[in-house]
Amino acid sequence: MSQRPPSLLLGVGLSVIAMTVSLVLATSDQPALDSPDVAAWARSSDPSRPAPALKTMTTIEEPVVAGEPRFKETLQISSMMLSETAGVTFSHQWLRNDEAIDGATGASYRLRAQDVGQHISVAVTAHKSGFEPVTATASVAREIEHVQDVRTTVKYQVATRGRTTSNLGAFKTEVAEILADPRGWRSAGIAFEEVPSGAPMTIYLATAETLPSFASICSSQWSCRAGANVAINQTRWEDATDTWKAQDGTTLAGYRHMVVNHEVGHWLGYDHRYCTTPGKAAPLMMQQSKGLNGCTPNPWPLKSELDPPRFR
Predict the structure, then answer these.
(1) Rounded to an integer, what distance in angstroms lies between the CA atom of residue 119 and that of residue 101?
(2) What is the pTM (predicted TM-score) of this model?
């Protein structure tokens, strides 16, 4: 057998080495030269190599908030116009008094009860690979308002009946907060003002055994409204009812909202209502202390309950 000359063997060896080197380079983790990761790869390959400077985008038009600044309305934010358009994405963060609102990261935001009387704004950030992010903040022109402006103000006074043990000052404060809540009768355009005396409505904190003294229809088991008097049963105020507590997600605070709004609703002219759609929120004027008949607990007037007969 004839032997190949050394020069031929050397050439073949060099070719194999060259092919191996090419294959290694082709299958390495090196990114393409136009990849956004090339700078990071270069630094990891050679830590002394500086990263390429990011480019800058110029803002041509600032974002603007659109929409009615009222509870339950939805605000929309326009995208800012930039010197770059292709490949630009936007992120959003809605703010209440300059603090981030949990979960409010979309281009729209439905106003919540806690936004009423507060300053709302949104930070919009533009992103593009190879460019510095650009952030602009757009603000709502005025503080967020209630669903309706005030159309009437009801004055009320607070009193007790029987030997009450609940803290009267705390009771007054909580009743005032309930009546001022944007989700309650305030959303019907009705404001409430506590006065020392001479009011057309008196809200009582009453011991259970005194409830029948308000009217023959009043029971020691429940709260009651009789004429100008709204009587809140102290036992229920402190411990709700078994029916209420048996429902998922209910709280004592929720019960207090419900019972005050319900009994004041009677003063406003409403009779009892009933569950007509099981699985949906119960009407506020349903006797939720006694049962729900398939509806879910609800301490606030429904949309259909926002035109009280007393003020039509």
Answers:
(1) 12
(2) 0.79
The structural domains of the chain, with segments of one domain joined by +, span 59-139, 152-306
What are the tens digits of pLDDT across the range 47-64? 667 778 899 998 899 999
Q: Which two tokens stand for residue 29?
A: 């983790």
CB-based contact 43:49 (threshold 8 Å): yes
| Structural tokens at position 177 | 């907060």
| CA nearest to 262, candidates 223, 211, 229 | 223
Beta bridge mates, 243: none
Confidence band of 80 (pLDDT split at 50, 70, 90) = confident
Q: How many helices (H) and strands (E) does the chain have?
A: 6, 14
Instruction: Classify the phi-psi angles of 125: left when phi > 0, otherwise alpha if psi is within -120 to 50, otherwise beta.
Output: beta
- Whether residue 205 contacts residue 237, with contact meaning beta carbons closer than 8 Å, is answered with yes
- Contact of 91 with 127, CB cutoff 8 Å: yes
Residue 8: what pLDDT?
39
Over residues 294-307, the pLDDT tens digits come to 999 999 999 999 99
Q: List phi, psi (to 5°) of 13.
A: -60, -45
Q: How far apart are CA 280 and CA 288, in angstroms?
A: 13
CATH architecture classification, 59-139: Sandwich (2.60)
CATH number attached to the domain at 152-306 = 3.40.390.10
What strands lie across the sheet with 74-77, from one edge to the other? Answer: 65-66, 74-77, 108-110
Give the 3-state secondary structure of residue 119.
coil
